Amino acid sequence: MLKLSGIKMDFDTPVLRNINLQVSANERIAFLGSNGAGKTTLVRIISGSLKPTSGTVERNYNQNLDFGLMTKENTLIESFRVSEMIELTISLNKLTNVNIDEVLNEFGLLDKKKQFVSALSGGQKRKLDLLISSIKPSKLLILDEPTVGMDLETIDFFWRYMDQIKGTVITITHDFNQIDHYFD
Q: How many angstroms separate the CA atoms of 161 and 164, rounded?
């Protein structure tokens, strides 16, 4: 599904050197490491938003149709209502069988449907971002520190939700407690 060969990045200080990674279908992979170790840089290379200075990235999936990404930064449109964010995602991805009320209910956000994104708490925004990132089936879903800003109840929801996601998932996390249970 995904193969990285000889990835090398040369900045003022080396961030990534000699990365060789092959990802297969339906794997659960965790990227762990200290801050500044290059985890997000590697995700940016995999997603195609950053080009390595050398090496190759082979993608055996359609980058536009079969790829999902939840960044650690808020990518939500603050002036939209929650339902409008989901409607936009459905429209952009040409999804036909999505019931907005059902997905909002699953994520515990049904009562926030008409609220502006700007009025949500940080944890509710992360939940909405996860919903939007995973609403379409993906062969590869990358989650960059998805539990940042979530309370304990929302973090528990996130880990339970991980079991339902189909396809390959790469997660950047600092939650060492979940490594054995959720990742290959």
A: 5
Backbone angles phi, psi at 22, to 5 degrees: -125, 125
Give per-residue burial for 134-172: e unless 16+ CB within 10 Å, then b.
bbbebbbbbbbbbbebbeeebbebbeebbeebebbbbbb
Q: What is the pLDDT of residues 23-64, one digit of tens each?
A: 888 899 998 888 888 888 888 888 888 888 788 888 888 777
97 Cβ contact list (under 8 Å, min separation 6): none
Residue 109: CA count within 13 A, CB half-sphere: 29
> What span, in angstroms and rounded, lies between the C-alpha atoms of 80 and 88?
10
Taking phi over 0 as left and psi of -120 to 50 as alpha, with beta for the rest, 79 belongs to alpha
pTM comes to 0.86
Helix (H, G, I), strand (E, B) or coil at 82: helix
Phi, psi of 110 (to 5 degrees): -60, -40
3-state SS class at 154: helix
